[in-house]
Specification:
four-stranded mixed sheet; 7 helices; 40% helix
């Protein structure tokens, strides 16, 4: 009897990941049919090809950049200088697609992990809130959902300020605390004397 965890034996692609590509195919087929009926075969062919491409691009079939999570974590731990940022992403996720479109060239400071190809990555993503957190950037002990390149670079700057190989030591998750004071003046209020007049 093997000690392999069944949850980690193979990646699980959720059924809803196929919804967008299916809609692309159906919509493209209907549009192509309309153009055929008005004797516009060339336009129908173009729409059919485009819908096929978009269905593939938004489906889990698209491979994209991928490094197994175990290899990515080992590479981050073994980094001589600043550790690279691990980015969990998924095909068909709009935010993941936008981020990858903005960063086309390979970068030494980024490691992409496709959660649909790595059960361990899926399990890790689940601990941070699941697919709604994609794309998820990991730097040492820190993690944050990233919407664009600016947020990614800002996350890297924040987590690397401590100078530790994996990011800022002891910084913890960078997702804002809903109860925290966004102005950062909590300490100032705590220094007021009891009953002191306020403007």
């Amino acid at each position: 009897m093997s000690g392999t965890d069944p949850a980690l034996s193979s990646p699980r692609v959720p059924a809803r990941a196929w919804l967008r590509p299916a809609l692309m195919l159906v919509g493209g087929a209907l549009a192509a049919l309309l153009f055929v009926q008005v004797d516009q075969q060339l336009a129908a062919f173009a729409i059919g090809v485009f819908s096929l491409f978009m269905a593939y691009w938004t489906s889990p079939l698209r491979s994209g950049p991928h490094t197994p999570l175990a290899s990515a974590q080992e590479r981050a731990r073994g980094a001589d200088g600043t550790a690279p940022t691990i980015v969990l992403w998924a095909p068909g996720d709009p935010a993941s697609a936008r981020l990858q479109a903005a960063i086309r060239a390979p970068r030494e400071d980024l490691i992409w992990v496709n959660v649909f190809k790595d059960p361990a990555a899926q399990q890790l993503l689940g601990r941070y809130g699941g697919e709604r957190m994609l794309p998820l950037a990991l730097q040492g002990e820190d993690a944050a959902r990233i919407d664009n390149v600016s947020e990614l670079f800002a996350f890297q700057d924040r987590t690397r300020q401590g100078g530790a190989p994996g990011g800022a030591a002891g910084a913890g998750p960078t997702t804002p605390d809903p109860g925290a004071d966004p102005s950062g003046r909590a300490e100032e209020r705590g220094q007021d004397e009891p009953g002191s007049p306020r403007a």
